[in-house]
Amino acid sequence: MDTTFGSVHFIIDSGGFLRLPGSVAPGLEKTTTPSMISVPPLTTVGPPYSFSNNDESVQRNPNSIGSRQERQKRRRDLHYEAIDRAASRLYQYGCDRLSYLDAYSGYNQIKLKEENQELTAFITPHSVYCYNVMTFGLKNTGATYQRCMQACLEEQIGWNIEVYIDDIFVKTRNAVTLIDDLRVTFDNLDHYKIKLNPKKCFFGVPGGQVLGYFILARGIEANPLKIKAVLDMEPPKYLQQV
């Protein structure tokens, strides 16, 4: 990943903690990979969470980067576009085919700077670990990933690509050029080493559910499941119900 946009820098001064000895926690092997976490050196930064064998026993460190107070202090530095506007552009483009691409654990593909990895430290009964990659839950993870995708697909956005955070849509005006559009997209993603999840990718579909809306040949329609409560609402019978 190009470090010009693929790194996150945190500056937080907090208390210290004592590193616990032990081996790799068996539970972490199921949810993470060796490249995602590591054992930090002795540090002055406290871990955000302390987990015990009892799932109900979780202690939070208020001085840590992972605490809710610190996450809420961070200003969102990139404002997202309204979802309905992003969805409307797909229809206005006049797409004959749509392709949906999903990055494999997209947030975890952005690496943290080595000097800031210990700021994400967390403690388990086995040892202390820290993230080597950007983790979920931080206020600016979505904004950081959005900038990453904009840098990767800068030449295509507005032409045959629309990106909304971790959703990538390839717009093909004519089915004949579908392969060419996908080839250019894959080349750009490969240049920045972005990995896709093939199980969640769809290619060359005439339409479907996009960002909570249905993009069809006749236009944009709301998701019936999301408006069911409004459609099934009974008309008011009394003045107080208005």
UniProtKB/TrEMBL annotation:
Gene3D superfamilies recorded: 3.30.70.270, HIV Type 1 Reverse Transcriptase, subunit A, domain 1
Domain Reverse transcriptase per the UniProt entry, residue ranges: 94-213
Biased composition (Polar residues): 50-67
Transmembrane segments: none
InterPro entries found in the cross-reference section: DNA/RNA_pol_sf, Rev_trsase/Diguanyl_cyclase, RNA-dir_DNA_polymerase, RT_dom
Region of interest (Disordered), residue spans: 31-74
Annotated protein name in UniProt: Reverse transcriptase domain-containing protein
Organism: Lolium multiflorum
